[in-house]
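Example 9 (inverse folding). The structure is encoded as follows.
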């Protein structure tokens, strides 16, 4: 820490640099977010970052990242190998031109095809997940000639046009964004899906484990039955692996746990290595026919930026390695054992762990608990965010590269955060004249 930062720390007042950043953010980026973080005394300005950690601009606060931006930082912050690759790539490439033939895009497309099962052979690149979902829906509609899209209620696929239409109503209703032919069913409910998906349905789109809905683990065989239904009714099955892909669940792709092959797989977040935005819509070979008549009918200027492709190639190679996946599974066992111990210690507050590999959600007593735990986790040095569409659940998404020894540190901090959140909850409930037993 430099002297200026140290002295501001000793005075316990934010440095002028930090105060300016907060003011400018509130005045010119988001007044609402600035007010929110002030209200909850969480005015951290993210600065230095490395591996699983990020530090405040004043250097006085450090957080262990258990959110990882939904998997963007699967390989940790500022992964050295990826930074070197990106720097080298910049000596030769830039974004490229999305209309022309590109070697980095061709190489990444080949690598994705090699690591996908069946004939998931073609990839159309984008910048973000929402854009990649939009394209998946376009391809499904173009291929089937149908328009209906069925998704899970409370699922999340992004905030762009078609992706938003497939997501929760609360994100679209203020903007008057209604798209016809989008239908939602409860996740895991096969009967509702069978009743809704018919000969007008172009695609069923699902996250293997809906993150924003609270890391819901589907009932046994659910995805297999969805796959069968889609085959039977000639519906395109889109798997949104934006969060679950690239090793997060202990296998390279989450759909492998169910032994199915989707028609379209959407990737984003982690593919970027946390350094260069890129997303991918991987489609089965027959579906590529929608672009035969006019291969220029879909364009994304920055989609599959060439320097980003080079980073993504390495991310894919890393996430495919058996040693890497074994590490993820070892970490997953450690978390499951230690969180069970926490559950025994806080049985009325922490109800259970939803888990597939390191795709984890901590299930809590009620809707108040997720926001409270996010706050007390922050106070105890953990960045952890509750699930927006079910605030009884706190998402737990550590970097896949964290060391096994670091699990103890996380659990120790989480233990303290749980105790404080329990206290806070008592206070809140008490102030509502409704004392609880928790
Ligand atoms: C499952 C899932 N799909 C799609 C998206 C949209 O990705 P992006 O924010 O990059 O548009 C997200 C983002 O959180 C996501 O979690």
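The amino acid assigned to each position is listed next.
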């Amino acid at each position: 820490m430099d002297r200026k930062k140290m002295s501001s720390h000793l005075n316990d007042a934010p440095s002028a640099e930090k105060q300016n950043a907060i003011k400018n953010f509130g005045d010119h980026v988001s007044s609402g977010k600035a007010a929110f973080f002030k209200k909850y005394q969480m005015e951290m300005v993210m600065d230095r970052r490395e591996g699983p950690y990020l530090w405040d601009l004043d250097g006085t606060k450090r957080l262990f990242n258990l959110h990882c931006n939904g998997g963007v930082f699967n390989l940790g912050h500022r992964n050295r190998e990826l930074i070197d690759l990106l720097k080298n790539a910049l000596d030769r490439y830039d974004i490229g031109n999305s209309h022309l033939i590109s070697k980095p895009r061709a190489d990444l497309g080949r690598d994705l095809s090699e690591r996908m099962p069946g004939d998931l052979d073609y990839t159309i690149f984008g910048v973000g997940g929402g854009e990649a979902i939009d394209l998946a829906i376009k391809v499904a509609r173009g291929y089937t000639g149908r328009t209906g899209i069925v998704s899970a209620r409370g699922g999340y696929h992004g905030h762009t046009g078609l992706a938003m239409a497939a997501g929760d109503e609360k994100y679209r209703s203020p903007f008057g964004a209604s798209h016809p032919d989008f239908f939602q069913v409860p996740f895991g409910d096969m009967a509702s899906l069978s009743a809704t998906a018919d000969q007008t349905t172009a695609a069923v789109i699902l996250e293997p484990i809906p993150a924003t809905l609270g890391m819901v683990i589907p009932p046994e065989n659910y995805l297999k039955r969805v796959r069968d239904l889609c085959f039977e009714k000639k519906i395109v099955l889109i798997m949104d692996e934006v969060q679950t892909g690239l090793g997060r669940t202990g296998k390279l792709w989450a759909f492998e746990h169910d032994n199915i092959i989707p028609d379209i797989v959407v990737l984003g977040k982690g593919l970027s290595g946390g350094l260069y935005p890129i997303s991918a819509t991987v489609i089965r070979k027959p579906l590529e026919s929608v672009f035969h008549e006019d291969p220029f009918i879909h364009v994304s200027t920055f989609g599959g930026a060439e320097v980003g492709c080079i980073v993504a190639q390495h991310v894919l190679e890393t996430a495919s390695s058996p040693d890497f996946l074994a590490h993820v599974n070892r970490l997953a066992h450690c978390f499951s054992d230690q969180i069970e111990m926490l559950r025994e210690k806080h049985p009325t507050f922490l109800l259970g762990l939803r888990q597939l590999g390191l795709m984890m959600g901590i299930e809590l007593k009620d809707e108040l608990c997720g926001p409270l735990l996010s706050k007390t986790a922050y106070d105890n040095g953990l960045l952890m965010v509750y699930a927006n569409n079910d605030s009884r659940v706190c998402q737990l998404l550590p970097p896949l590269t964290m060391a096994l020894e670091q699990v103890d540190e996380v659990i120790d901090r989480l233990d303290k955060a749980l105790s404080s959140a329990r206290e806070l909850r008592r206070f809140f409930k008490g102030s509502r004249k409704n004392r609880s037993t928790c």
